[in-house]
Every structure is written in C-alpha cells, then in structure tokens.
Amino acid sequence: MKLLVTGGCGFIGSAFVRLALARGAAVVNLDKLTYAGNPENVADVADHPGYTFVHADIADADAVADAIRGADAVVNFAAESHVDRSILSPADFITTDVVGTAVLLDAARRADVGRFVQVSTDEVYGSIRSGAFHETDPLAPSSPYSASKAGGDLQVLAWHRTFGLDAVITRGSNTFGPRQYPEKLIPLFVTNALDGLELPVYGDGMQVRDWIFVDDHCEGIWAVLDQGVAGEVYNVGGGNEEANLGITRRILELTGRDASLVRHVADRPGHDRRYALDTARLRGLGWEPRHSFEEALAATVAWYRDNRAWWEPIKSGEYRRYYEEQYGTR
Ligand code: NAD
Ligand code: DAU
Fold it and tell me: What 3-state DSSP class applies to 4?
C-alpha cells in the first residue's frame, strides 16, 4: 500500500509515518515545514526505502497532484493546530485547514485514490458539561482553530456525498507524547518545569481534557484507514479525563518541582470547559488504547528530560517570540 501522508513532520504525523512504514506501507510525506514541522521528527526513517519527502503546501494544487500520483490512500494530518495561535491570527487556519483540505480532496478525487482519511479533533463538537460526544452530535466549535477543522470535516463529508469519494474522519482527543511542539500544555509545562520556569495556568485551571498517548491515537487512525466505513466519523479518545490543574500537579511531581511554579494567568477567550468522547464505534473495529496514562506521561517527561537538543532551540527561537507576544517578557 502506498500512502500520501500530509503533515508527517509534525507531532502526530511523524508518529504515524513510523507506524505506517513499520506496517509495510510506502509513505510519501508532504509537509510545508511550518514552525511546527521539524524534519528531525522523521530523521530515523529518512533513509527507509519506502519513504519519500515532498516539501509542499497542501493548498498548492499542482504540488499535491504530483505527490498523490500512485497513492492508494491519503491521510491528512497537515493543519495549523494550536488554539491560541488561531486566536492571535486566524487566517492561516482557514487557508490550511479548510482550503488546503479541499485542495487535497479534489486531488484525491481526480487521482481516483481509494481512501481519504481526515485527521480531525474532538474540539469540533465544542464543550460538554456531562456525558460524552457521539459522532452524530452537531458541530459547535468555539475557536477559529476548531471552526477551521469543522470546515475541513464538512468538506470531507460533502466530497463523499457529492462525488462518492471514499472518505472517513477521525476525531481525536488531546494527544501527548514525544516530539510535541512545546506550545501545547504538556510539553510546555514539562520543559518549563525542567528549567524551573513558571507554568501559566489559564483561568482557574479546572478545564477538563481527555488525554491519549500519541501511539494509541495513531493506532486508532490506522484502524479507521484499514476498516472504517466510507462516509463515517470515528472518535479516538483515550478515556483519561483530567483537569489542567491535575495535569500540572502530575508534571510537578514527575519533574521534582513544587507548586510555587504555578502561575494563574488570564483565561483563553472562548475556552472550552470540558471535552469527552464516546469511542464505542472505533472500539467496534477492535481498537483500544494500549498505554496507561500514568506510564505514558512518565515516559513522555523522561523523553523531554533526555532530549533537550530537540526542544531548547525551539524555545529560544520562534516560540520565545510567540510567548512574549502573549505574556510579555519574563
Ligand atoms: P503539529 O502542529 O505538530 O503538526 C502539523 C504539521 O502540518 C507540521 O509538520 C506542519 O509543517 C504541517 N503543515 C501545516 N500546514 C501545512 C500546509 N499548509 N501544508 C503542508 N503541511 C502543513 O500538529 P499535530 O498536533 O501533530 O496535529 C496533527 C493533526 O491532528 C492536525 O490535523 C490536528 O488538528 C489533529 N489533532 C491534533 C490533536 C493534538 O492533541 N495535537 C488532537 C486531535 C487532532
Ligand atoms: O482536543 C484536541 C485538541 O487538543 C487538538 O485538536 C489541538 O490541536 C490541540 O492543540 C489540543 O487543543 P487544546 O486547546 O485542548 O490543547 P492545549 O495544549 O493548547 O491546552 C490544553 C488545556 O490547557 C486547555 O484547557 C488550555 C490549557 N492551557 C494551555 C496552555 C498552552 C493552559 O492552562 N496553559 C497553557 O499555557
């Protein structure tokens, strides 16, 4: 099987590239290498005979038409993925997450690709007070990021209905693990704690997320690629609900720091209070998460402790400018 994977130099995409190669697929990884795309994330497979890299934008129709030739399936990870950046600067989100997705869909249709997998997010459902979201629930996104992902999802479903494209959608919950850009909660707090820096908790810190280890998320996407029913959506959740302050406490323990590092800062505008997913549909395909939250979080903290060379250049360069724009200089 030959896959066109987009965004394969990012956090989850790079883990999926490794999984796909290990399962015997050939992979063309098309990535624009935005601030979040890092060739280091796939350095260990760069010389694999089944791996090819294409430096391109998913919104570039010509580049995508070239890269998609001969692909049996497309797995679309490419996106602007950070909620806070979407609040500062929404335009790139619409260009990549909506327009880029439509360009890819059109190319997939023209190339008669066998399957299109859209990697989406639980954030498209919005916030839920109690219970869990099902795939049939209405979309109510809160941020420019989640609205752009919802726009991408709707394009995917429209391409299926209108053009008969074999397309499926995965909606994953908050993912963590090695190689996650240190703007997201867990890698930001772990790397700050390792350096004895403050942990900026938004608002009261009682917002709840459902955490999933990156390899379990990738296995869920693989199951949907392999066995999902065309036109269907599949939730991919870890079942590990925890408030941000709980995550913060765990990180302080794992890094040997104390609560004096916690700094409550202004809340995120439009901040969703809680996410939770019903995953019965995906479990019906035989998938279940294999990693315990505690062990995977400890392994993730250890990875950041052992891989300063990966994150220190990021935090001293592009990320520092972004952080100072949000919080001022420290
Ligand atoms: P990431 O920000 O780490 O990586 C995104 C990758 O996409 C980068 O390599 C970047 O260079 C590439 N990219 C961005 N714009 C592009 C464009 N126009 N053309 C080609 N490549 C482009 O993201 P991530 O956290 O790995 O998320 C991957 C996908 O999974 C996204 O679609 C995201 O919405 C979804 N998702 C993420 C999470 C999470 O918790 N991180 C959870 C659920 C779903
Ligand atoms: O739910 C899936 C989504 O999870 C993905 O679609 C997104 O791509 C991914 O970024 C993530 O979105 P969140 O907004 O939930 O993740 P983030 O790591 O930005 O924030 C997690 C929670 O922690 C959220 O309630 C905001 C809070 N937070 C975050 C940061 C970066 C803080 O309190 N302080 C921070 O500095």
Answer: strand
Contact criterion met (CB below 8 Å) for 30 and 5: yes
Nearest to 55 by CA among 6, 99, 16: 6
Q: 202, 210, 274, 300: which to mutate for ligand 2, most atoms within 8 A of CB?
A: 202
Nearest to 191 by CA among 205, 201, 206, 181: 181
Say what the pTM is: 0.97
User: Which tens digit of pLDDT belongs to each residue from 80-131?
Assistant: 999 999 999 999 999 999 999 999 999 999 999 999 999 999 999 999 999 9
**Pairing, β 240-243 against β 208-213:** antiparallel
Catalytic residue among 31, 57, 80, 123: 123
Superfamily the domain 178-209+239-270+292-323 falls into: UDP-galactose 4-epimerase, domain 1 (3.90.25.10)
